[in-house]
Write a structure and sequence with these properties.
The structure holds two protein chains of two kinds. Chain A is α/β, with parallel strands linked by helices. Chain A has nine helices and 14 strands. In chain A, α5 links the parallel β10 (146-153) and β11 (173-178). Chain B contains 13 helices and 18 strands. Chain B has helices spanning 5-14, 28-38, 65-75, 125-131, 149-159, 163-183, 219-222, 232-239, 258-270, 287-298, 317-330, 346-355, 364-378, and strands at 23-25, 42-47, 59-62, 79-80, 83-84, 87-92, 98-107, 112-118, 137-140, 185-195, 201-203, 207-210, 243-246, 251-255, 277-280, 305-312, 337-343, 360-361. In chain B, strands 7, 8, 9, 10, 11 and 12 form a six-stranded antiparallel sheet that branches. Chain B is elongated, with a radius of gyration of 25 Å. Classes of the chains: A alpha/beta, B alpha+beta. At the A-B interface, α4 and α5 of A face α9 of B.
């Protein structure tokens, strides 16, 4: 088992002929993801990599292939419309990799998706991978391994670092979800904690947060009340100065709120084991008696 | 991107909000001329992207044009929180009967723009929120409909008792919301919104922060960027597509990805060092970016050791290696460098580096530890 994506995922790639879209579609195909269609307006009728049909619109792509998931690789100024288009076409899950989507756009996207009961992961995220089953996005398949640890993170390469440490120590993953570094995102920590708690094949959860906002604090409260599986957590940005945006649009300490110390304290109060550095993930899982 | 007060005032004015007279000056003579034109007392205000201007001596009252010139002489060129003041705003002193706060923020938790108002204006709103939260009213706006008239009136009644002032404030709030959306803001505030003894409602100060992701589609707003008032290294980094933030330590960091960059800084501290900077070279790999990154890091005299931490995904390790070799071929490094690379094309990268006389590590902890040691030894 896994969360959000698995062997039943039938994927459409929005922006399949672009530089990033084409590169990562090849990687997803190689990994075994069922990429059933691609969409690029004006390129309908072409075939990508000798096997994936390309359509002009999402509506056509979904009608012709029965796709249930889309991944968005279009430039940021078109990303919000690509998400609306995917929702209108009827997919249940949209993964938006694009970085730089205006936050005001996201304030309009979110109620639109909620009304249609469509899940969005991202934007500005590396996507998701359920090792051995399906990969949607850009997380390198080579560092992952099938297993029972669920990983959820606001970051990209820091997630790879932690997955790498896990795999090296023999801890495989059920699913790894990169939820994105923006202030407004479709799927948050709590959504992932709930899904991992319900997934019988996930035995432990690793949460990688960072400075900015209160998502981690709320997730910690949720975990204390609703999650029975052991959780290990990390917060990036302990040395970040206040008031500065640390690369991610959402990674900013505003006034005295959103600091790493505050988030780590919330983790500790909720019984979440706090890593001091990424390499601690393995020893903390062992301490919690999670088997590799 | 932060706008200066004078720029934010102009945007509010364009939206129809009553803003008192005022003009911006780059020299003491200009400040004097502006004050003379207004006649009477004026306030001379430093235009700088830093809070606490008043406490730093960047806001001064002048009784006449000569005094305005004297104040401008002191304020222009002064440094507030590391930023040099290049311009001052000169405004006539206002007669104030009451001061309120009106702001629009993008609220992360509710995923909406939120209107926030308080009759306790003129002071830091975070302080009001912390000490007297009952004096703040918040209202979430559905961005598909904007701030509705009855919502604005409800907020107006929280601020004022007199109906004409309630109506005036409600109109200002709807105009402020429109200005916020038109600018692609993440924050727009008027602090203070004042009433005058004759009952007028005016925006005395203005602050707008623009979401950087909006700038591509708003060239008019993007043109307001004042690079002279920013840290030159940060400007250079941005123009090369890097994110750089200067800190005070001695270990220069160059990392791909914001989360890993923060975690690297934290690990430097964990092993007893201090990071000199945050630097994210981003996802796409381009050797030229690495060259600029190294130029920026080595320009900081406090840097005693350089640390590369690259986890290859989209970023190819060989591209980073080529960037390091190119940059160090142009200018010889004066400080030691520690390179950690793992992931996409790692083997190729190690070969490129070894051929140029560098060695590379694959473990993050080991690399950070070594960089901290080297920086400590040089200090």
């Amino acid at each position: 088992m896994s969360i959000f994506i698995d062997r039943a995922t039938k994927l459409v790639v929005q922006g399949i002929t672009g530089r990033d879209g084409s590169f990562h579609t090849k990687q997803m195909l190689e990994y075994g993801t069922h990429v059933v269609a691609g969409v690029t307006p004006g390129k309908g009728g072409q075939t990508f990599a000798d096997k994936v049909p390309v359509f002009d619109t999402m509506a056509e792509a979904v009608a012709a292939t029965g796709a249930n998931t889309s991944v968005v690789y279009v430039p940021s100024r078109f990303a919000a419309d690509a998400v609306y288009e995917a929702a209108d076409a009827g997919v249940r899950l949209i993964v938006c990799i694009s970085e730089g989507v205006p936050v005001l756009d996201m304030t309009r996207v979110m109620p639109y998706l909620r009304e249609r009961k469509v899940r969005l992961i991202g934007p500005n995220c590396p996507g998701a991978i359920s090792p051995g089953r399906c990969k949607v996005g850009i997380i390198p398949g080579s560092i992952c391994r099938e297993g029972t640890v669920g990983v959820v993170s606001r970051s990209g390469t820091l997630t790879y670092e932690v997955i790498h440490q896990l795999t090296r120590a023999g801890y495989g993953q059920s699913s790894c979800i990169g939820i994105g570094g923006d202030p407004i995102i479709g799927t948050n920590f709590i959504d992932c904690l709930a899904a991992f708690e319900a997934d019988p094949d996930t035995k432990a959860i690793v949460m990688i947060g960072e400075i900015g906002g209160t998502d981690e604090q709320q997730a910690a409260e949720y975990a204390a009340a609703h999650v029975t599986k052991p959780i290990v957590g990390f917060i990036a940005g302990q040395t970040a100065p206040p008031g500065r945006r640390m690369g991610h649009a959402g990674a900013i300490i505003s006034g005295a709120s959103g600091t790493a110390a505050e988030k780590m304290a919330a983790f500790t109060r909720a019984g979440i084991a706090v890593m001091k550095r990424p390499a601690d993930v393995v020893s903390l899982l062992k301490e919690r008696r999670v088997a590799a | 991107m932060n706008l200066h007060e004078y720029q934010a005032r102009a945007l509010l004015q364009a939206a129809g909000i009553p803003v008192p007279d005022g003009d911006v000056a780059a020299t003491p003579a200009e400040a004097e001329a502006i004050a003379k034109r207004f006649g009477g007392g004026v306030v001379v205000k430093a235009q700088v992207h830093a809070g606490g201007r008043g406490k730093a001596g960047g806001v001064k009252l002048a009784k006449d044009a000569a005094e305005a010139r004297a104040h401008a002489e002191k304020i222009l060129g002064m440094t507030i929180k590391g930023l040099t003041v290049e311009k001052v705003l000169v405004v006539p002193t206002a007669d104030i009967a009451s001061e309120s706060y009106v702001g629009v923020i993008l609220d992360r938790a509710s995923q909406r723009p939120v209107l926030m108002v308080s009759p306790a204006g003129g002071i830091d709103i975070e302080e009001v929120a912390a000490t007297t939260p009952g004096k703040i009213m918040k209202l979430g706006v559905d961005p598909r409909f904007g701030l509705l008239p009855h919502q604005a009136m409800q907020l107006g009644f929280f601020l004022y008792d007199e109906l004409p002032q309630v109506r005036a404030a409600a109109a200002i709030m709807r105009q402020l919301y429109d200005a916020f959306v038109r600018a692609g803001g993440s924050l727009a505030e008027i602090n203070p919104l004042i009433t005058t003894p004759d009952g007028a409602v005016l925006a005395l100060d203005a602050k707008i922060v623009v979401d950087d992701n909006e700038l591509d589609r708003r060239p008019g707003i993007a043109a307001l960027r004042d690079t002279a008032s920013e840290n030159p290294a940060e400007v250079k980094a941005r123009e090369a597509g890097l994110t750089f933030i200067k800190l005070d330590g001695s270990v220069g960091c160059c990392v791909n990805g914001a989360g890993l960059a923060m975690a690297t800084m934290d690990l430097v501290k964990y092993y007893g060092g201090e990071p000199a900077n945050f630097l994210d070279i981003g996802g796409s790999s381009n050797p030229e970016k690495v060259v600029v990154a190294l130029e920026i890091i080595t320009a900081d005299p406090r840097v005693k050791a350089i640390l590369f931490n690259i986890f290859g995904g989209i970023t190819r390790c060989d591209d980073v290696a080529n960037g390091i070799v190119t940059a160090t071929g142009r200018t010889k490094l004066a400080v030691p460098i520690v390179i950690r690379l793992t992931g996409t094309n790692e083997e190729l990268a190690v070969k490129i580096l070894e051929r140029a006389g560098f060695s590379a590590l694959t473990d993050m902890d080991e690399a950070v530890k070594r960089a901290v040691e080297l920086a400590g030894r040089a200090a």
